[in-house]
Specification:
Blueprint: E1 4-7, E2 12-16, E3 27-30, H1 33-41, H2 48-65, H3 71-86, H4 93-106, H5 113-143, E4 151-154, H6 169-178, E5 184-188, H7 195-207, E6 211-214, H8 219-224, E7 230-233, E8 237-239, E9 244-247, H9 250-259, E10 264-267, E11 273-274, H10 291-294, E12 297-298, E13 301-302, E14 315-318, E15 325-328, E16 331-333, H11 337-346
Parallel strand pairs: 4-5, 4-7, 5-6, 7-10, 8-11, 10-15
Antiparallel strand pairs: 1-2, 2-3, 8-9, 9-14, 12-13, 15-16
Helix pairs in contact: 1-2, 1-3, 2-3, 2-4, 2-5, 3-4, 4-5, 5-6
Bound molecules: 5-S-methyl-1-O-phosphono-5-thio-D-ribulose.
Length: 347
């Protein structure tokens, strides 16, 4: 089952609603690009590669629903859709990368609107299919770094739900498990949206991979114990110098791993690498509603005092100096990242 699908019969986008998993499994159906933008914003669908594909399919919906036959008006309509989808979430570069791919189709010198519609849909489908292939390639490279008996600490959700299918960092763990390696995963719960406790744990249950959920603050304790052999996570954006923007808490995790001599692996498709950004300090960090932090109850009662204020940055920056290697579909990249990334991407 894929996290996102295009229904060809009805021309709608179907997404697994990730807000209520694992208690409720529901689909959200989107028939307009505005609904897709809202679904990205509300985190019905989440994870950098998945929101890239959602953006592309949102553009395909806009193209199909556009009433104009005139190519200029058609392009103007799609430009509005592009801007709306672009502003749905700011950090994961995969969204902009996918929208730019669609944009390059729209800009082709073709004046037949029906033909353009077909080409836009085909490009969105291609982006989705490529994502699955790329995840398998990442996972094949990443699984080689995992040994039999490893205890791996994983942050957020980087599995099939965060992509179209299979996953990146969790995909590496999954592939190593299929190779017969015995792995135990410590799953950071990933406050405040609990992508680890809800989504990663739910996926690991289905794959039959042994795991335990830990609170984010326990990561340092386990890393210091000497039992954790590797840290794995994904990325929302990787700067040209190898700095990584990923789910809030990644930086603290990487700091603690580094201090305790535990290797830190970041798995991501090359579409997550943004060579236009020199370092992590200039990556826009989404700040979400304080309600996500404050809406937590204990025995049916709100935990925080009424009227309490909160801050909720959704991502942080892990400096490249804390990262052992980046795992991409093209292979594993070791420091110095600045020059190796350039070499890798030029091939
Ligand atoms: O806010 P989210 O759930 O979209 O954040 C997701 C992450 O930070 C993931 O680790 C990242 O997108 C990589 S997913 C393969």
């Amino acid at each position: 089952m894929r996290s996102i699908e295009w229904d060809e019969t009805n021309n709608i986008v179907r997404m697994i609603d990730q807000r209520y998993l694992p208690r409720r499994f529901e689909w959200v159906l989107c028939s307009t690009y505005q609904e897709v933008a809202k679904a990205i914003q509300d985190m019905v669908i989440r994870g950098a590669p998945a929101i890239g594909v959602a953006g592309a399919m949102g553009m395909a919906l806009a193209a199909i629903n556009c009433p104009d036959d005139d190519p200029n008006q058609f392009r103007a309509f799609l430009n509005t859709a592009h801007q709306t989808l672009r502003s749905s979430r700011p950090t994961a570069v995969n969204l902009f990368w996918a929208l730019d791919r669609i944009q390059s189709v729209i800009q082709r010198p073709i004046d037949n609107v029906e033909k353009l519609k077909k080409l836009i849909l085909a490009e969105a489908m291609r982006i989705a299919e490529e994502d699955v292939v790329i995840n398998h390639q990442i996972s094949t490279h990443g699984a080689e770094l995992i040994q039999d008996g490893d205890v791996i600490l994983h942050h957020c959700n980087t599995g099939a739900l965060a992509t179209v299918d299979w996953g990146t960092a969790l995909g590496c763990i999954r592939k190593a498990h299929l190779q017969g390696k015995r792995i135990h995963v410590l799953v950071d719960e990933t406050r405040p949206r609990l992508q680890g406790a809800r989504l990663t744990a739910w996926e690991l249950e289905q794959y039959g991979i042994p795991y335990e959920i830990i609170v984010d603050g326990a990561a340092g304790y386990f890393l210091r114990s000497g039992k954790v052999k590797k840290v794995f996570f994904g990325a929302d954006r990787i700067a040209a110098n190898g700095d990584v923007a990923n789910k809030i808490g990644t930086y603290m995790l990487a700091l603690s791993a580094h201090e305790n001599g535990v290797p830190v692996y970041c798995a991501a498709p090359t579409s997550t690498i943004d060579m236009s950004i020199p370092n992590g300090d200039v990556i826009p960090i989404e700040e979400r509603s304080a309600d996500e932090v404050l809406d937590i109850q204990y025995k049916g009662e709100a935990v925080a005092p009424i009227g309490a204020k909160a801050r909720n940055p959704a991502f942080d920056i892990t400096p490249h100096s804390l990262i052992t290697a980046l795992i991409t579909e093209k292979g594993v990249i070791y420091p110095p990242f600045q020059e190796r990334l350039l070499q890798f991407l030029s091939h």
